[in-house]
Amino acid sequence: MSSDHSTLRKLIYVFVSKGIKGVSGLLVAWLLAEKYGAYGSGLFFIAYSFAFICANFAQLGIGNACLSFIPQVREQESKDISSLWTFSQVVVGGFSFLFSATVMFFAKPVAELVFKDVSKWAYVFWAAPIIFAWSLTRINIMVRQSMGDMSGITVLENLVHPLGMMVLVGLAFVADLSVLNFLIAVTALYVVVFVYALLSTRHDYALKLSLKLRSHITVREIVLFSIPLLVIAFSQTSLIWINTLILGAVGAVADAAVFVAAMKIAFSISILLYTFNSVYAPQISAAHARNDMQAIPALYRDATHALTFFSFILLVGVAAYADLAMGFFGAEYEAGTGCLLWMLAGQLSNCYVGPVGYMLILSGKSKLEVFNTSVGLVLNAGLCVVLYNFFGVSGAGAAFCLSSVIINLFRYFQCRKFFGVIWFDITQRLFISLQLFIIAAYLLLTSYGINRELLIIVLLSAYLLLNYRKVWSLVETLRTQH
User: Fold this and answer.
1) Which of 125, 144, 157, 287 is the most buried (most CB within 10 A)?
2) 203-246, pLDDT tens digit by residue?
3) How far apart (Å, rounded) are the C-alpha atoms in residues 205 and 194?
4) Contact (Cβ atoms closer than 8 angstroms) between residue 371 and residue 315
């Protein structure tokens, strides 16, 4: 999609595509539960989560560096885009290849760590190539994102990959694949997506292999900028997926599957956050590059107002039917209802504070984000181990929620100090007041046995009507903003 399209059009486009990806992820988790049960699904997701976390480490923070530097050079010297793209492929490709090979060589010790069972080494071995394939695929996605290419991101990340996963799950039913064979098929899909991402990105932007930078940006500057982002990227991804590995290592494999199912549902809210981050990150980077310190708070205000208003609607829809949503996966998953509610609260905090993490990274204050994400990861992992022993899988969800809230508080107050952003303005106060009133009314009236569906329709309709003018004003701002 052209970068000349309005912000509103980009947001709609990305939201729809992210929605497709989210629904596909839920269907894959459900079909795996139907096919293999909680234990079999747990075997797959533990190996998959391990490879996914390693892949994000293998990106070395260079993907986020592309988000910062490419918007700065695209109008100065187009040949530098090829140089930055080539640099990212060579460095990340070389490191991730060695990383994958090392994991495959030491598959048995790794299996002892994540499965507590060395006999499961084959799952680690066949998941390892995902480290190489996804790290490079992600780099190409972020190059496209830095160019404002929403359609390219959609095809790569939100259509080819999730729809391919769904096809493989269908194949697992038809061909009666074992869990291990299904994992091998998923690994092959990641390799195919990587090849497509590499070739299509190079073709669409006429990129050439070149390591000669002609602008003021140097390789040293890129490396120094990327090192903190390595910690950030690893910590952010691990914050989401590490509890899956912890449950496999200290708990039960089936509990890991229950946690993943709850996570997939809870992240339906985060589709909004990912949407706004994808569109606003290049704008924030460009505003900082031209030293427009008035534009950054304005962009933040528009993003957080929209996120606060719309994420609440998704929250109500999911939270009200949390028990049914988990039961949809099977009787073994019903114990994860509490985990889902905790994770919904954590995701809501992520949406409400908006793109504060990106603001720190893209403004050169990545060291602060290193601190934030590192503290959050350690806190989440520690709380998960402790709370799981007392509350089961719900404790893992509570650990994610508490650590997410603390990280977001750190980020917000740091952005407030450096950029003068204000979250709790008059519009936010109106939104939050109405939301608290709706929650209180819902809890009170349902306690008297009033129909749940009717209450949701009435309360959300009132919520939309009372905020009609503010929402219309927001939409007009996004529609005219490019």
Assistant:
1) 144
2) 877 777 766 666 666 666 766 667 776 777 777 777 778 888 88
3) 17
4) no
Among residues 64, 104, 386, 119, which one has the least CA distance to residue 229? 64
Tokens 């509610």, residue?
341
pTM of the model as a whole: 0.78
Is there a contact between 256 and 46 (Cβ–Cβ < 8 Å)? Answer: yes
For residue 314, what pLDDT band results from cuts at 50, 70 and 90?
A: confident
Q: Which of 71, 177, 85 is nearest to 139 (CA)?
A: 85
3-state secondary structure of 251: coil
Q: What distance in Å separates the CA atoms of residue 61 and residue 234, rounded to the nearest whole number? A: 8
Is 92:60 a contact under the CB 8 Å cutoff? yes
SS3 447: coil
Q: Determine if residue 226 is left, alpha or beta; phi over 0 gives left, psi from -120 to 50 gives alpha, anything else beta.
A: alpha
- Distance separating alpha carbons of residues 190 and 331, to the nearest angstrom: 31
Residue 2 pLDDT class (50, 70, 90 cuts): very low
Neighbours of 350 (CB within 10 A): 23
SS3 402: helix
Helix (H) or strand (E) holding 287: helix 253-289
Nearest to 398 by CA among 381, 379, 383, 378: 383
316 contact partners, CB below 8 Å, separation of at least 6: 438, 442, 456, 459, 460
Which helix H or strand E contains 88, and what residues bound it? Answer: helix 79-105
Q: What is the DSSP string of 415-426?
A: HHHHH---SS-H
Q: Tokens at residue 418, please?
A: 């450096």
From CA 236, how far away is CA 375, in angstroms rounded? 11
The distance of Cα 150 from the centroid of its chain, to the nearest Å, equals 16
The answer to whether 328 and 30 have CB atoms below 8 angstroms apart is: yes
d(CA 421, CA 331): 46
- What's the rounded Cα separation, in Å, for the pair 400 and 414? 21
18-53, pLDDT tens digit by residue? Answer: 777 777 777 888 888 888 888 899 999 999 989 988
Give how far Cα 212 sits from Cα of 78, 87, 162, Å. 12, 9, 36
Closest CA to 407 of 364, 371, 366: 371
